[in-house]
């Protein structure tokens, strides 16, 4: 059901490489050595990727097809998204005591996951494009793991273990699940996938981050349940379980199991945990500010501190995204910003796709995206630009599935035709990765076989 782009202009200015670049640079290159100071905030490599995507969209406006409206379900989301952007700029004007650089910094955080899906989703229109997305996830996971394991080699110590708080660690559960679902699509042998899984599992465990442990367990469990018909359970038994066992033996051999037991299984006294106390104080301070202006918030760029200006800055450092957005934008602003993104996920992931390839990607996203967004948002994920850029990548992935499903146009054409002898079959390309999956007549296939049609409908490639 994948449309193959044929327009030379569209191929030349595709945003897909930049979208994959945003994923890699926001997670694997999230380091001060790559940042450039600019006013009140630092420009990162993924900022230039985002600007490049906007530039590509502007250049593609010369194509007459750029003005063709997408299907109604996409047009509705696009219209709501435009209202969100307009609202953000209307409520983020100059205010006394608020620096314009701080305003730009906060607006940037929101635009990355609100706007990116509508800049890039049309360029994910083939099996090869989805393969590139999966390769980007796996390569980013391997790069993040290499950086983290390199730090462990230099500073390994079981008495004072090194805890890695890198933002890139959040991609590792998604990368591991990618190997369970798309090993054959990526052309990887079981042994190679096993070594990659073990490599990323080691980095994830060494991070000593309990949130990622929870995310990995939830994502793998959901992925196995949803992917039993496409081999995910078999891959989990052949790849993930042996990698987990090998990891346990490895950590036992270096005396690291006690460190993990202390971190995961032992409940420490909260009043002795300085990190916990600081987070409670941050949360209470943000909620106090929220109660001062509950409906519209204090606005983008607003700054405040807890424990004085030498302490934590509540306006830019938040361990709870929802408290952060309520304090900045109030109840109305938070609903306006978050509701369209939630609607996008519900529309794209809440429907079963006839094409087995799209259905496979839908199940992958169900197992990974909501788990990541929910768990990470409770620890401030939607309040940091690198993580909102990653969230924009995932929402783009979701929106592309909704766009590539052509059941709605097919149903409309059938309804407008007085007599239809055979049902219309959506266009199906035969990508190289098709050979790795059972034919439509195979009972293990997700979707049943449907009669072929000599004139399959095509979606216009707009913009």
Automatic annotation (TrEMBL):
It is a multi-pass membrane protein. It comes from the Bacteria. Signal peptide: none annotated. It is found in: Membrane. Residues 436-463 are annotated as: Disordered. The keyword Nucleus does not apply. Residues 438-456 have a biased composition (Low complexity). Residues 196-337 form the O-antigen ligase-related domain. The keyword Membrane applies. InterPro entries: O-antigen_ligase-rel_domated (IPR007016), WaaL-like (IPR051533). This is O-antigen ligase-related domain-containing protein. The lineage of its organism: Bacteria, Pseudomonadati, Pseudomonadota, Betaproteobacteria, Burkholderiales.
């Amino acid at each position: 059901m994948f449309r193959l782009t044929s327009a030379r202009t569209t191929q030349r200015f595709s945003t897909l490489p930049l979208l994959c670049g945003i994923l890699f640079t926001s997670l694997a290159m999230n380091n001060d050595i790559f940042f450039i100071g600019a006013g009140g905030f630092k420009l990162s490599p993924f900022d230039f990727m985002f600007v490049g995507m906007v530039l590509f969209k502007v250049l593609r406006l010369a194509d007459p097809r750029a003005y063709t409206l997408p299907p109604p379900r996409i047009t509705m989301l696009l219209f709501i998204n435009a209202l969100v952007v307009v609202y953000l700029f209307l409520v983020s004007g100059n205010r006394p005591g608020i620096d314009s650089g701080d305003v730009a910094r906060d607006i940037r955080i929101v635009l990355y996951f609100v706007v990116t899906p509508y800049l890039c989703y049309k360029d994910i229109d083939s099996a090869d494009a989805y393969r590139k997305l999966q390769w980007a996830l796996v390569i980013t996971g391997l790069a993040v793991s290499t950086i983290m394991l390199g730090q462990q080699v230099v500073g390994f110590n079981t008495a004072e273990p090194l805890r890695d708080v890198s933002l890139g660690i959040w991609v590792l559960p998604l990368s591991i699940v990618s190997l369970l679902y798309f090993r054959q699509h990526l052309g990887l042998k079981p042994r190679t996938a096993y070594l990659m899984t073990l490599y990323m599992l080691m980095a994830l465990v060494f991070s000593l981050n309990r949130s990622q442990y929870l995310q990995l367990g939830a994502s793998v469990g959901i992925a196995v349940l949803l992917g039993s018909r496409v081999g995910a359970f078999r891959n989990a038994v052949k790849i993930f379980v042996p990698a987990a066992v090998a990891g346990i033996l490895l950590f036992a051999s270096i005396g690291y199991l006690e460190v993990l037991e202390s971190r995961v299984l032992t409940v420490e006294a909260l009043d002795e945990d300085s990190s916990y106390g600081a987070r409670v104080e941050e949360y209470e301070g943000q909620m106090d500010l929220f109660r001062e202006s509950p409906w519209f918030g204090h606005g983008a760029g607003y700054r405040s501190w807890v424990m004085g200006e030498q302490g934590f800055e509540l306006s830019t450092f938040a361990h709870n995204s929802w408290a952060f957005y309520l304090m900045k934008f109030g109840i109305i602003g938070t609903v306006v910003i978050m509701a369209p993104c939630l609607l996008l996920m519900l529309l794209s992931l809440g429907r079963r796709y006839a094409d087995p390839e799209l259905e496979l990607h839908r199940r992958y996203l169900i197992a990974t995206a909501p788990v990541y967004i929910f768990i990470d948002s409770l620890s401030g994920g939607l309040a940091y630009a690198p993580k909102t850029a990653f969230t924009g990548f995932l929402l783009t992935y979701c929106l592309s599935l909704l766009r590539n499903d052509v059941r709605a146009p097919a149903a409309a054409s059938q309804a407008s035709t007085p007599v239809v002898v055979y049902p219309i079959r959506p266009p199906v390309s035969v990508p190289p990765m098709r050979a790795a999956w059972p034919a439509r007549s195979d009972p293990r296939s997700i979707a049943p076989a449907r009669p072929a049609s000599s004139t399959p409908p095509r979606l216009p490639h707009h913009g």
